[in-house]
């Protein structure tokens, strides 16, 4: 549009009008920023004061005590949280609500070492929102359908219930309705989901004997368990340094709290039907556990040994071993190369150097070619410009194997896994939910990551993992277990 045409369409504004227009624009921007900052609480959960969620009579009359938490980040972190949750539920004598596996980084916690994490209430809301999305899209898969927990649940002191069963019983909602492809759910279902999510997440805080929302997180608390409780209330050895306090303007003080004394028998929390944690992720940092630091006393020693390694379910293990025996057919090395995600994208050279050194050592010993199984997040189209491209082109010395997501091996394993229904075997005594199937439109789960790890556990020439990767740590555990049990 030419300046002349513009001047004919838009009359000249007086300076005052221009000032008013600027003010309007500024307020519009501020409003958009405010809206965006509050987008972490979807409209699904914004309810009026008259709609405050309350426990149903059925929930209060159940008698059984439950515990749930907010998983997050990648699968390996979610598995680590799950193990901590099992431990917490046993200590507190509660039935653990087993969550689904969330999409990779669909929900992120933040940085505990930097004291910059999501509030427990916020992360519970985000997890619930993603759970509903998984169900509605037919992609819900319980972590107990991937990880074999039969050995620990057979113990009378470990009680679990699938989240779908729990919501059906405790909130009176059939989550099958959320699977419908039509996103315009009926108003009654929409309202029920909204209220149930608000209730389970503690959006409005704790509610009498119904719900206790645990709002402690890794910035303020290290959960411990000691029979005499001698550490309860003590300052933890890891605290934010003065530079961080000044830079972030924070005043957090980390204290060690006995989980049983604070939330267990005899505490004010004991009567709550549901105990809702935020994140239960914990990892070593500068000599201190970030969030969960349990003493291995005699009561917990056997359980902690059992949950140290939880194998994948038989359908996944069988698929991985089948690939190793029927496709590779020879001793092989496994390389787990995490190259794109988070901090790992800055250390690609070091990751490849570790693999190169291992292969050079094997090449000197012979025989050739060396069989190499590769699992990586680097797309196959990008391999040619990396060390992986060099390996593939050097057919005399190396034979490289890898999976494609459309391999029929995954489809056959997924069909068997869905039919087995592992996650729904461990129903509570509250209702006859054992064996219930959900969502006729359920999609076959993507088993790529789990089968890859199983293949790596059987690599007789060794394993090269990405330093700092929790996936690599889990593979090392699998290899140790496979070696001691002779499963490969």
TrEMBL record:
Gene3D superfamilies: 3.40.50.11340, 3.40.50.11350. This is O-fucosyltransferase 30. It comes from Abrus precatorius (Indian licorice).
């Amino acid at each position: 549009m030419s300046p002349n045409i513009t001047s004919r369409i838009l009359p000249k504004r007086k300076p005052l009008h221009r000032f008013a227009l600027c003010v309007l624009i500024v307020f519009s921007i501020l409003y958009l920023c405010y809206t965006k900052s509050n987008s972490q609480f979807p409209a699904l959960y914004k309810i009026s004061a008259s709609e405050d969620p309350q426990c149903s009579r059925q929930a209060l009359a159940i008698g059984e005590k439950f515990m749930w938490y907010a998983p997050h980040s990648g699968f390996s972190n979610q598995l680590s949280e799950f193990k901590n949750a099992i431990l917490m539920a046993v200590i507190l004598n509660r039935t653990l609500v087993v969550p689904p596996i969330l999409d990779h980084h669909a929900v992120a916690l933040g940085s505990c070492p930097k004291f910059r994490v999501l509030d427990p209430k916020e992360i519970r809301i985000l997890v619930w929102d993603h759970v509903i999305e998984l169900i509605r899209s037919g992609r819900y898969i319980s972590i107990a359908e991937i990880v074999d927990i039969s050995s620990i649940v057979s113990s009378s002191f470990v009680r679990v219930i699938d989240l779908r069963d729990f919501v059906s019983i405790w909130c009176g909602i059939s989550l099958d309705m959320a699977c419908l492809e039509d996103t315009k759910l009926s108003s009654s279902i929409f309202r029920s989901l909204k209220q149930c999510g608000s209730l389970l997440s503690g959006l409005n805080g704790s509610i009498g004997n119904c719900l206790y929302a645990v709002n402690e997180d890794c910035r303020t608390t290290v959960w411990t368990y000691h029979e005499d409780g001698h550490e309860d209330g003590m300052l933890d050895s890891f605290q934010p340094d003065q530079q961080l306090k000044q830079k972030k303007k924070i005043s957090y003080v980390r204290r060690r709290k006995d989980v049983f004394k604070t939330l267990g028998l005899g505490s004010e929390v004991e009567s709550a039907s549901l105990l809702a944690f935020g994140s239960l992720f914990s990892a070593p940092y500068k000599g201190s556990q970030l969030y969960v630091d349990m003493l291995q006393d005699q009561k917990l020693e056997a359980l902690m040994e059992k949950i140290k390694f939880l194998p994948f379910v038989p359908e996944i293990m069988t698929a991985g071993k089948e690939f190793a025996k029927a496709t590779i057919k020879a001793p092989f090395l496994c390389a787990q190369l995490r190259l794109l995600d988070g901090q790992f994208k800055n250390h690609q050279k070091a990751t490849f150097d570790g693999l190169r050194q291992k292969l050079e050592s094997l090449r000197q010993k012979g025989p050739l070619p060396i069989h190499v199984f590769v699992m990586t997040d680097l797309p196959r189209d990008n391999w040619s410009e990396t060390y992986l491209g060099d390996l593939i082109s050097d057919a005399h010395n190396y034979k490289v194997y890898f999976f494609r997501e459309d391999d029929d091996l995954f489809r056959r394993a997924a069909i068997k896994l869905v039919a087995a229904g592992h996650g729904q075997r461990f129903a509570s005594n509250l209702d006859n939910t054992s064996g219930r199937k959900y969502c006729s439109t359920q999609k076959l789960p993507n088993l790529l990551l789990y089968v890859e790890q199983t293949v790596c556990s059987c690599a007789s020439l060794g394993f090269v993992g990405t330093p700092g990767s929790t996936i690599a740590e889990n593979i090392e555990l699998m290899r140790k277990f496979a070696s001691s049990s002779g499963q490969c």
